[in-house]
Write a structure and sequence with these properties.
Chain B: Pfam families: BPD_transp_1, OppC_N. The complex is a heterotrimer. Chain A is an all-alpha fold. Chain A has 14 helices and no strands. Chain B is 63% helix and 6% strand. In chain B, helix 2 crosses helix 13. Chain B has one domain: MetI-like (MetI-like fold), CATH 1.10.3720.10. Chain B contains 13 helices and 6 strands. By secondary structure, chain C is α/β, with parallel strands linked by helices. Chain C has one domain: P-loop containing nucleotide triphosphate hydrolases (Rossmann fold), CATH 3.40.50. Chain C is 31% helix and 23% strand. Chain C has an 8-stranded mixed β-sheet with strand order 6-7-8-3-9-10-12-11, with helices on both faces. A 4-stranded antiparallel β-sheet of chain C has the order 2-1-4-5, covered by helices on one side. In chain C, strand 1 and strand 2 form a beta hairpin. Classes of the chains: A mainly alpha, B mainly alpha, C alpha/beta. Chains in contact: A-B, A-C. Chains A and B meet through helix 1, helix 6, helix 7, helix 8 and helix 10 of A and helix 5, helix 6, strand 5, helix 11 and helix 12 of B.
Chain lengths: 327, 326, 316
């Protein structure tokens, strides 16, 4: 058990290191994309270029640059933005994180509730018109670009039907902190979270239905029926118990990716000042340290979430805890 | 069923009405996009030139492309709205720069489809090479390749794509002697292909791994076949099923990624269009001329939905055991 | 039927919705305290017969009658089935590894069955679970109940499975190849356990492909071939004087229970027919060494002493 934990930890450190090298490389060592030119602007004179280069340390060898960048990101945490000279980046990311977390929490609540309901109903009524209808809707949800769906939602709720009883409660775009007004917070997040969750509802309902149907063919389910268990108990207790492993791991991955900035497009469309929108603003000003910090933050979050999923897995399936069941 | 996988695919798809409808819709979208220059010439518009001072004929009358705003204050100008006559100039209205929306949507389709198809193919080729090596050779080759995929996978797909785009946008990419211009479509193709490699490589690796332990591979190895021969003659042909199923699903993902990048102004660069850039153009007109942003989105939904339906049908056809599994 | 009879199946026929015939005339009967061995090759329909008695077959058309304590099982609704399953008729499956839910503790799974049928507290249910596990010869039953299925050996798993089947004191126990997945030494122990069970007055229906198992553990036997019961009767009578050529072939292919194993055992030539390619006459005719022209017509059931046989050789 301890050895497994140590091996897992080693792997995590390796992946984190790999990510930091990759991200650093993308931003500061992409062939043809000289960060100096990026900061100095197009057509800058050689003197300006040289000044920028030495000021940011781009004249040093890459490993030294890498070490300095990581030190600024994780140790001293005083990495400053290229654009707003002197504004530290790390606190900015930390301030944006609660917004993203709120959005993703709401969205995940919606997608878990709806996908569980739809997935179970579709599996129980498999090949009926209800099943086909739900799976068709699910596929449609999967096929919609989230930023476009967000614009359609805005069009309907902010403009075309805003003055009807149905959408008159919809607040203007933006975010309200929970500490300021819990009700305002919920209202501001409801539609963005629903929009974000649509694709996930479709995906998760389909995955759950498939896994449930596969589980229903297993011997253990036949045993449950032979014991005299009723259909509700067989599906919900035994069937879900067998089939939710892949659902849970998928959920962990997606949740982590979204909190890590995967919700960028939703945040942009609904003007929510989260980590994703911070990245987007960095894009417009070509603020490389800011973007690097957010991407790094995202990756670290995903790696940590993966470790948590592994732990949850071991709780859900005792065979994995003993390493008998390589997944 | 009879002989090769292709006849099985055709046979299976032919029996599925949904798949045939998807194939038809997809064919229609591709044909319409390919016909973009003919359409533009036919109705007589240039969708790449700003034309804010221009006029057009509507119901036999000359009208300005930029109309006085219909909001209560009459501030600013609003582009001409759609009258839904396709085949006439500005039948779907004009965008903020006085360009024909219908022609731009068709031209945008060319780029969106081209980029997503090319990215899907490039991604599958790379992923197949990685998956084959990792699955077949195993050992440290597998460990190194799999860890590299883990690293790539840990960064949210869109963030990675955005990061790669931001460093190449405006400056292009220099790979040794080769320089790819900043407005070259190859840049989004390479970026999108790269970020989806882990997605495609994992199932291919798993398949290659199980195949390389299969009896017929053991036999070839026992007969002294070279690694190259086993990989290309024994294992690769057996990956065909996985690849055929993967192709439309991957292209759907690539299309969504492309439109997202273009929406963030990081994909296709102006004045060229893609469905994503048109939605971006239409964002400012959302409440006054929603058609500009909504129409290209509908095209994306139709295309991605068709690809997903097709992918599902292919999976059901090629792997009847997994019928209905997603 | 007499009062002692627990289960009687009369001329049971099953067909798939597309018309393929799975069972084509199965008649069995089982009295209290008896053990009926249902023998046949895979595909002969022996597991289907068991699943019909449990009501676990979806989407099949059935005709004939399955009577359990004078109740026609084929006529009852889902609710009645649920009260019956696990309480009055219980089943033991071939592979206890897959039959248990892998992600829950063995004890919890046995408790569940008890609490499904009787109003007991968790504590009372667990007490019965531990007692049953102990009676089945599981060492340290309280600790074993806290284990997950994969943490027990194959033999212990099957003992736990039997404990679960017996947890509500069923009148009929159906065991589907209960020893096939086990080591030879463990097989014998499990068979002893199953024979002891008859002393409580319950009936046992033992599905197997192994005549040896029947000889060890059963009082009666029914030989199934291609969906038809070709011969049935008391075990002693059938073993001493097998009537149907198929039964004879089966017995000849069985190694002797004691004494040296012969150099080679005679095998039956050919394969049993697929469900959609069964001959209209005697189902065994294509492989039968004593085949005659009149085998082309389905032979009637003939009573010979305590035995019943379906073969033209005995038709008068």
């Amino acid at each position: 058990m301890l050895r497994m934990l140590a091996a897992r930890l080693g792997q995590m450190v390796f992946v984190l290191f790999g990510i930091s090298v990759l991200v650093f490389g993308v931003f500061f060592a992409t062939p043809g994309a000289d960060p100096t030119a990026r900061i100095a602007g197009r057509g800058a004179s050689p003197e300006v270029m040289a000044r920028v280069r030495s000021a940011y340390g781009f004249d040093r060898p890459l490993p030294v640059q890498y070490a300095r960048m990581m030190e600024k990101l994780f140790v001293s945490r005083d990495l400053t933005s290229f654009v707003d000279h002197g504004a530290p980046v790390v606190p900015e990311v930390m301030a944006a994180a609660p917004v993203t977390l709120s959005l993703v929490l709401w969205a995940s609540l919606f997608w878990v509730v709806f996908s569980l309901a739809i997935g179970i109903v579709s599996a129980v009524l498999r090949d009926s018109w209800v099943d086909r209808f739900f799976m068709g809707i699910g596929l449609l949800g999967l096929s919609m670009p989230v930023f476009w769906l967000g614009e359609v939602v805005n069009l309907v709720t902010q403009s075309r039907f805003h003055d009807t009883w149905l959408f008159s409660w919809v607040p203007p775009l933006g975010y309200v902190p929970f500490s300021e007004s819990p009700l305002g917070w919920a209202r501001a997040l409801l539609l963005p979270a629903l929009t974000l969750s649509v694709a996930f509802i479709g995906l998760y309902a389909r995955v759950l239905r498939a896994e449930l149907l596969a589980a229903m063919g297993e011997d253990a389910i036949r045993t449950a029926r032979a014991k005299g268990a009723g259909p509700a108990r067989v599906w919900l207790w035994h069937g879900l118990r067998l089939s939710w492993l892949s659902y849970v791991s998928l959920f962990g991955m997606d949740f982590a990716q979204l909190v890590g900035g995967g919700a960028l497009l939703t945040e942009v469309v609904f003007a929510l000042p989260g980590v994703g929108r911070l990245t987007y603003q960095g894009l417009n000003t070509l603020d490389l340290p800011l973007i690097m910090a957010t991407v790094m933050y995202a990756a670290v979050f995903v790696v940590l979430a993966n470790a948590v999923i592994d732990g949850v897995y071991a709780l859900l399936d005792p065979r994995i805890a003993e390493g008998r069941h390589g997944r | 069923m009879r002989d090769g996988p292709w006849s099985r695919v055709w046979h299976g798809l032919g029996q599925r009405r949904g798949a045939m409808a998807a194939l038809g819709l997809l064919g229609l979208i591709v044909a319409a996009s390919l016909a973009a220059p003919f359409y533009a010439a036919w109705v007589g518009v240039d969708p790449f030139v700003s034309n804010v001072a221009g006029t057009t004929l509507r119901h036999g009358q000359v009208v300005d492309l930029m109309q006085p705003n219909d909001n209560p204050l009459h501030l600013g100008l609003t582009p001409l709205g759609p009258d839904w006559r396709i085949g006439e100039a500005y039948g779907l209205g004009s965008d903020a720069q006085g360009r024909d929306v219908a022609a731009r949507v068709l031209y945008g389709g060319r780029n969106s489809l081209l980029i997503s198809a090319a990215a899907a193919i490039l991604c599958m080729m790379t992923a197949t090479a990685i998956g084959l090596c990792a699955g077949y050779f195993g050992g440290w080759v597998d460990i190194v390749l799999s860890r590299m995929l883990d690293v790539l996978w840990a960064i949210p797909v869109y963030l990675l794509a955005i990061s790669l785009s931001i460093v190449t946008v405006g400056h292009g990419l220099r790979l040794g002697p080769v320089t790819i211009g900043a407005d070259n479509l190859l840049i989004p193709v390479i970026i999108i292909a790269l970020v989806y490699i882990p997605y495609a490589a994992r199932p291919l690796r798993a398949r290659a791994l199980s195949l390389s332990r299969a009896e017929f591979v053991m036999v070839s190895r026992g007969l002294g076949a070279s690694h190259w021969r086993i990989l290309t003659r024994e294992i690769l042909p057996n990956l065909a099923d996985t690849l055929v199923v993967l192709a439309p699903l991957l292209m759907a993902l690539c299309l969504l990624a492309e439109s997202s990048l273009s929406f963030l102004s990081l994909g296709v660069q102006a004045p060229a269009a893609s469905w994503g850039t048109i939605i971006q153009d239409g964002e400012g007109l959302l409440y006054t001329r929603p058609a500009v942003a909504i129409l290209p989105g509908l095209m994306i939904v139709a295309t991605v939905l068709s690809l997903n339906v097709l992918g599902d049908a292919l999976r059901d056809t090629l792997d009847p055991k997994r019928r209905g599994r997603s | 039927m007499d009062a002692e009879t627990l289960l009687s199946i009369e001329d049971l026929r099953l067909a798939l919705p597309d018309g393929r015939v799975l069972l084509d005339g199965v008649s069995l009967s089982l009295a209290r305290g008896e053990a009926l061995g249902v023998v046949g090759e895979s595909g002969s329909g022996k597991s289907l017969t068991a699943m019909t008695v449990m009501g676990l077959l979806p989407d099949v058309r059935s005709s004939g009658a399955v009577r359990f304590r004078a109740r026609d099982l084929l006529m009852q609704d889902a609710r009645a089935w649920r009260r019956l399953r696990g309480k009055e008729i219980a089943m033991i499956f071939q592979d206890p590894m897959t039959a248990f839910l892998p992600v829950r503790r063995v004890g919890a799974q046995i408790d569940e069955q008890i609490r499904l049928h009787e109003k007991l507290s968790r504590r009372e249910a667990r007490a019965r679970t531990v007692r049953l596990l102990g009676e089945m010869g599981v060492p340290d039953p309280a600790a074993a109940a806290e284990r997950f299925p994969h943490q027990l050996s194959g033999g212990l798993r099957q003992r736990a499975m039997i404990a679960m089947a017996l947890s509500c004191a069923p009148a009929l126990l159906i065991a589907d190849e209960p020893t096939t997945a086990l080591d030879v030494t463990v097989q014998a122990q499990i068979l002893v356990l199953l024979t002891r069970l008859r002393e409580t007055g319950a009936g046992l229906m033992l599905i197997t492909h192994d005549m040896g198992v029947v000889a060890q553990a059963c009082t009666h036997v029914a030989v199934l071939y291609a969906g038809v019961v070709v011969e049935r009767g008391p075990v002693r009578a059938v073993l001493d004087a097998p009537l149907h050529p198929y039964t004879r072939a089966l017995l000849a292919a069985m190694p002797p229970l004691d004494g040296p194993r012969p150099a080679h055992l005679p095998a039956i030539a050919g394969q049993p027919p697929a469900p959609d390619a069964r001959p209209p006459g005697c189902v065994f005719a294509p492989r039968c060494p004593q085949v005659r022209p009149d085998c082309a017509i389905r032979p009637p059931v003939v009573r010979m002493g305590e035995q019943e046989v379906v073969c033209v050789l005995y038709a008068s």
